[in-house]
Amino acid sequence: MEKIEPIQTGHARDIEGAKMGMWVFLFTEMLLFGGLFLLYSVYRSKYSAEFHGSAAELDIVLGTVNTLILLTSSLTMVLSLSALQKGQRGLSLLLQSATVLLGVIFLVNKYFEWSAHIHQGIYPDSPVLLAMKRGNIIFFSLYFVMTGIHGLHVLIGAGVIAGMAVFTLQGKLGPDNFVMLENSGLYWHFVDIIWIYLFPLFYLIV
Amino acid sequence: MSAGQETQVAVARYRIYVYAWLSLIALTALTVSVARLHLTTYAILIAILIATTKASVVVTFFMHLRKEPLILKLMLFVALLAFTLIALLTFSDVWYR
After folding, report:
1. ipTM of the shown complex
2. In this structure, what CATH number is given to the domain that contains residue A155?
């Protein structure tokens, strides 16, 4: 029976440093999205009627489903780290793949959602949108920019986790070398948190 | 014996993550239900409160903040404080213009 090696304490410092670096990067990401959330707050207080009206156009069911998908993907991500730390590479690989798959399903839903808007003629700078009131234009501009940048983060996160799956398969990641997967997880959970705020602000304020 | 203990610890950890996930699902159901009540004035406040609770669960359990050293918690506190100050300064400019 294979003995599970305890985490080498000699590496603890490196792990802490790597994680701290990731957190600092996430703080800069927080300011990126934070600025956009401030824009949203200020314009929402100025054009609350139009924001309520525009939000009614969004599909609450699709938004809720996407929320559940991202929350579940965060669970599979954190479980994949536990599995890797325990030396269960196969299980970890399976959970990493599930995370990537859930991220892709989220993006597919977003694709259908955006396609429906574009079909209705609602996209940045479209004649239909520009004919609306100023508050509606600002709402949809913020909607496309914020969910767009968030979607880009989901795409990058899924790509990074797919890379981690390859590393796990190659044996480069294991119970004594998991900090890359942990940092990928931190990024993924951060992206989840952004969606936790985007969901009520754009879908639930009707 | 040692291997058995390892498994026990691991099972407990898995369970904590599943509980955290269940609470996130429950809070999502709550925020959607509250939105259906159309509480105009307090709706946004309640929505933000629930979202912040969900974010705290993600940070505490999924991002393992509860197991991180104090310095990292302080760094997060400073980052959040900085953002709060930026937000308050922005709002004070908008409100008292």
Report:
1. 0.89
2. 1.20.120.80
